[in-house]
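Summary of Year 1 activities. Much of the first year was spent building the evaluation harness for sequence design. The harness presents a backbone, in tokenized form, and records the residue chosen at every position. We chose the following record to illustrate the format because it has been used consistently in internal testing since the harness was completed.
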């Protein structure tokens, strides 16, 4: 894409944006870094790394970047691919020595590294059902306790829940398995591999997969902001290290982002070829061409006329987000060591900041595209979320799926979940004048970017599925008689009738 003139980096304006962010969302400590022209052009540290000592947030404060670790593991796999040691389309079992991936059913295609890199290998959110009742879904231990190997944690085998390539479910077990693959193929422990093949070449001298003494000395304390105040969280180590365990600083993460925006290299060295990195940013899983989809280890997002890639990180007490526009050479890192519900607002705030940095307009819901009510009969109905009961985060947010219906003359979408804000429903706003099956949900009152909703048809032109540009998820249309809301309402009605009948009987008896 042709380069375009970018707005000048205005430190005061960015600082004012950070002020607005903190006015909307209180935090204990926050670090914001802006990368452009191959270096860290702006840094702003707010709040404290530790409440007791009142240590300020600096470029050298160590944070837990949580799931942004997944991008490093993806790069390690691609390094092995560049060396011809791993075929992305070959069965993972060709390389994995420490444990097995067991197919959900006999005859299913085997999972590949590409499936694992795009969260489409058929793995669920939980490795063990009892993990739903444990901290970090059973994937962590207290600091100081021995961290089991993945072979021990998975008991020699990790079972898939669906055929690879058929569905997207975000999880830690695919990236952790890729980390084990890196160890098994390279013959190096993953922490050493990261240090020698990624951190040291990029000059990331203060980053580690393990809690080294240097890391521990400058590690921020993690907090949560709750209804009763600010509380320090229990510090734990992740068993699924390749998915969530890196410790890093804003200065080191800026060096990482420089490499991601400059074809795999920074002033210190190189980790990948520009061609390989570009391939990682391209859509490798996209259930519908109208949504950005998933790259290899990186999520893709539409910002203006640019495709932006990035990743979020969430660990108790820590939240982080990276976003970069490869065509503009601009990237943003935002990390915090204590905030309320930052896993929801941090991506939107980081996206808003990046938009301003690359001169892209805010994503707004158009108001000049007419509705097409003649299509609503085909669109209305309920759409099932193809996730297991043990996919607790997806189920917790979306319940059984979504329902499209008409209320007050408006086309609406609601999620079949106990969460009132999601169950009430959202108007569907037409978003494409030439494509009447593309809509946006306006989330501006909650401080979020609009969410794209796309309806897909079969060859006969009948609507069969609903795609969201969140993660990206696919929901399949189901017969109306199977709508779980219908039987839920029915059960409630029967229960209400029985209760009312009992009350009337008791009243009659008491007269």
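For this record, the design step produced the sequence shown next.
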């Amino acid at each position: 894409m042709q380069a375009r003139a970018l707005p000048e980096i205005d430190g005061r304006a960015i600082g004012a944006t950070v002020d607005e962010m903190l006015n909307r969302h209180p935090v204990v400590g926050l670090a914001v870094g802006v990368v452009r022209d191959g270096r860290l052009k702006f840094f702003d540290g707010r709040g404290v790394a530790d409440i007791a000592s009142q240590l300020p947030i600096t470029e050298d404060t160590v944070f837990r970047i949580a799931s942004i670790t997944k991008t490093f593991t993806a790069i390690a796999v691609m390094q092995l691919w560049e060396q011809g040691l791993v075929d992305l389309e070959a069965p993972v079992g060709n390389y994995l020595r420490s444990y097995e991936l067991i197919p959900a059913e006999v005859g299913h295609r085997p999972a590949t590294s590409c499936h694992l890199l795009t969260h489409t290998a058929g793995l669920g959110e939980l490795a063990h059902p009892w993990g739903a009742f444990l901290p970090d879904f059973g994937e962590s231990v207290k600091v100081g306790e021995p961290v089991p190997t993945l072979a021990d944690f998975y008991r020699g085998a990790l079972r898939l829940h669906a055929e690879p390539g058929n569905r997207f479910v975000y999880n830690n077990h695919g990236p952790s398995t890729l980390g084990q693959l890196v160890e098994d193929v390279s013959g190096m422990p993953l922490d050493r591999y990261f240090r020698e093949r990624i951190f040291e070449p990029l000059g990331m001298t203060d980053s580690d997969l393990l809690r080294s003494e240097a890391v521990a000395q400058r590690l921020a304390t993690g907090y949560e902001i709750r209804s009763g105040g600010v509380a320090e969280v229990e510090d734990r180590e992740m068993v699924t290290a390749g998915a969530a365990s890196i410790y890093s600083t804003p200065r080191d993460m800026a060096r990482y982002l420089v490499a991601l925006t400059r074809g795999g290299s920074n002033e210190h060295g190189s980790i990948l070829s520009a061609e390989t990195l570009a391939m990682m940013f391209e859509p490798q899983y996209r259930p519908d061409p109208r949504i950005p989809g998933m790259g290899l280890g990186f999520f893709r997002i539409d910002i203006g006329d640019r495709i932006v890639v990035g990743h979020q990180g969430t660990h108790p007490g820590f939240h982080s987000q990276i976003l970069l526009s490869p065509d503009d050479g601009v990237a943003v890192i935002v990390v915090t060591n204590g905030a309320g519900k930052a896993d929801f607002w941090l991506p939107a705030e980081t996206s808003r900041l990046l938009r301003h940095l690359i001169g892209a307009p805010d994503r707004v819901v158009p108001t000049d595209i007419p509705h097409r009510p003649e299509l609503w009969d085909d669109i209305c109905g309920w759409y099932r979320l193809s996730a297991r009961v043990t996919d607790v985060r997806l189920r917790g947010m979306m319940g059984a799926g979504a329902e499209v219906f008409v209320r007050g003359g408006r086309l609406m979408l609601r999620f079949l979940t106990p969460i009132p804000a999601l169950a009430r429903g959202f108007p569907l706003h037409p978003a494409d004048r030439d494509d009447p099956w593309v809509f946006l949900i306006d989330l501006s009152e909650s401080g979020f970017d609009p969410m794209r909703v796309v309806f897909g048809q079969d060859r006969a032109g009948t609507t069969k599925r609903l795609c969201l540009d969140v993660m990206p998820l696919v929901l399949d249309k189901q017969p109306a008689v199977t709508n779980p809301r219908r039987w839920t309402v029915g059960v409630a009605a029967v229960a209400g009738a029985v209760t009312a009948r009992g009350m009337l009987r008791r009243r009659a008896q008491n007269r």
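Residues 484-510 form the longest helix (27 residues). Quantitative recovery figures across the full test set are reported in Table 2.
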